[in-house]
Design a protein that fits this description.
This protein is an alpha+beta fold and 314 residues long. Helix content is 33%, strand content 20%. It contains twelve helices and eleven strands. InterPro entries: P-loop_NTPase (IPR027417).
Length: 314
């Protein structure tokens, strides 16, 4: 928490009556117990929680991890279902959102889904919303034009586990940044703690018709590689016309490429090369003359603007 405050520039005074932390070490949170006769919900614990929430006007409560808040078997659907529904009742009675943080079983390299939580399936089934966290994959990084391995490995996507995944450029992402706590002394460095911040996928600016026409002109009717790893990547042409670097500005170039495909100025096409299908792009629809009239920006193509030419005394 100290690292997050340092990173985001939040003073402690701003958190005094708005943020409350309890490690559970001195007073453990236990909402249910289990013995050979079955499980029992601790109504006294929930009543105390409700009173504290109302007294301090708490609007969001995080329980992390959920498994440490009860003493029943994780695999018991009956017990877990009862506990989660009691949490839901607490939320309804107090108007406080309750977030139960749960860990997953071992999955190898595949992404986490709502069904991958440890233990009983009753937990995600009873939850109103399930959010999953997954590190960015190499494929997603490639599609977004991120070639720095250190960068894309620090990016985490948040998905609604019960719904469909959004495309990489429309998903919700957070980036883990390193924050020095400033507690180092002399030759001993300070502690480095990971801090999360919102991260947005690169977006392309509005397509300039003059630039699009120039890109299509330079294509000359040929097919170009769709993948940024291809030697004949169409992004090299786009970057040259727009005035970007195809390496340093790869993410922005790829965003423009996606925008041109979405607008049908570029058309994806698989072509058979050396016995395998290769993803290519060819010229799509042409830029209409009316588009050039509505939005003339010749300076975007490296030419002097009409105003500049008119005012040139030579």
């Amino acid at each position: 928490m100290a690292a997050a405050c340092l990173f985001h520039g939040i003073d402690r005074e701003e958190c005094d009556d708005r943020l409350y932390l309890d490690s559970g070490i001195i007073q453990p949170l236990c909402t249910a117990t289990e013995d050979r006769h079955g499980f029992t919900l601790s109504e006294a614990t929930f009543d105390q929680l409700a009173a504290t929430i109302r007294e301090r006007d708490i609007s969001v409560l995080f329980v992390d991890p959920f498994v440490s808040s009860h003493l029943v078997r994780e695999s018991s659907n009956e017990a877990i279902d009862a506990i989660v529904k009691r949490w839901k009742r607490l939320a309804q009675e107090t108007g406080c959102a309750v977030v139960l943080v749960h860990h997953t079983k071992k999955l190898g390299d595949r992404d986490v889904s709502a069904e991958d939580g440890r233990g009983a399936s009753a937990l995600p089934a009873a939850a109103r919303v399930v959010l999953t966290l997954n590190r960015m994959s190499k494929g997603e990084a490639t599609r977004l034009g991120i070639v720095n391995g250190t960068e894309w490995k620090s990016l985490v996507r948040i998905d609604t586990g019960k719904g469909n995944r959004a495309p990489p450029d429309q998903a919700t992402w957070i980036k883990l940044e390193s924050q020095d706590l400033g507690n180092g002394e002399f030759w001993v460095p300070g502690d480095q703690v990971a801090v999360a911040r919102i991260w947005h996928a690169p977006e392309a600016a509005d397509l300039d018709p003059m630039s699009v026409r120039e890109i299509q002109h330079r294509m000359g009717g040929a097919a170009f590689g769709e993948n940024c790893q291809a030697r004949d990547w169409i992004g090299n042409v786009i970057a040259d016309v727009i005035g970007l670097c195809p390496v340093d500005d790869r993410a922005e170039v790829q965003a423009i490429q996606r925008q041109m495909i979405a607008a049908a100025y570029l058309k994806p096409e698989a072509r058979r090369v050396s016995g395998r299908d290769r993803p290519m792009v060819i010229m799509g629809k042409s830029v209409a003359d009316a588009e050039l009239t509505e939005n003339p920006h010749p300076e975007k193509c490296g030419a002097a603007s009409a105003e500049g030419v008119a005012s040139d005394p030579d």
